[in-house]
């Protein structure tokens, strides 16, 4: 395991020789623009609807790799054509981003999901860096402003909760803003950027992370920050918490705050230990804080993104703190991921396993899985491994 050079090569090769060529070749809609994400095991299209948050993620991914790895024309071309499709069809004219479109770009589901907005922001932010196109930067900034205006009520009129009885706030938004702020930092005023980061760190580390739970993170708290004993209040997503911790580590590094990195690393370790399935291996998808039955029937599934985000957090934790426990966890999850999620026959990885680690759905992309967690994870882990001796 200590042969970091060989491991780095494994992640790099999987990214550049297998996963990226799969998305370049199989997902681009050469006729109407944008990307297909509903792809079967071999990469054949089984549904042509286009989901805005996955369109944004793919634009971001190809722009990011173009900016950070190599200025390959086919990556930039893929990003630009997706960005142009999004610019033309993805919003209502005022940068309220739809959830999904037909193949041709007609709206199917109205704006309701904050992630359509966050990934549009990331997409156009990164694409503006790749192209120098000021229009893309403006789209990112305007969309970011709308996100901030929705922070207190991210689902707006689509929030089905009855006002005033049990108002909960959710972990997903401050978590994603931690990552988003760093992603579009070049586009933001420094003072505003600092304020945004401070708020995000506070929410993640002081509100949703609970000292009375030994530092575990819950998905929902009351408006005043207190715990609520109901199904939503006991709801935990270990993968979310672990992913958020590498965002916080990045912020700790950016702000030169080693104590923040240390806290994030310890929280990631604690969560991995809590979420690991002692019987079959892998990390549970959903959990209940008190061990009660969850409301989600898929609670015991093993999902690709949960495990890939854990790989990033653990190797980053090791890189930044030298804590050997992070390396042990990285090894454990690495072994699980490469033997369960990697398809031995065709490119890209499976996304959905049952509790025992058997493939539940053979798809390589769908409504929720696109060109994002696998390539981003391979890229992040490869880059970190290259720095280790």
Structure explained in plain terms:
With 389 residues, this protein is mainly alpha-helical. 53% of the residues lie in helices and 8% in strands. It has helices at 4-26, 52-68, 73-89, 114-131, 134-149, 172-183, 190-208, 238-254, 258-275, 304-321, 324-340, 373-387; strands spanning 38-39, 45-47, 50-51, 100-101, 107-109, 168-170, 209-210, 216-217, 220-222, 235-236, 287-288, 302-303, 352-353, 359-361. Helix 2 (52-68) packs antiparallel against helix 3 (73-89) and helix 3 (73-89) crosses helix 4. The radius of gyration is 20 Å and the shape is globular. The mean pLDDT is 95.
Average pLDDT level: 95
Q: Helix tally?
A: 12
The dominant shape is: globular
Cα-atom Rg, whole angstroms?
20 Å
Ends: how far apart?
12 Å
Strand order of the largest sheet: 3-4-5
Quick one: biggest sheet?
A: 3 strands, antiparallel
Which percent range fits the helix content? 40-55%
**β-strand number:** 14
Question: Structural class of the secondary structure composition?
Answer: mainly alpha
Unreliable residue stretches: none
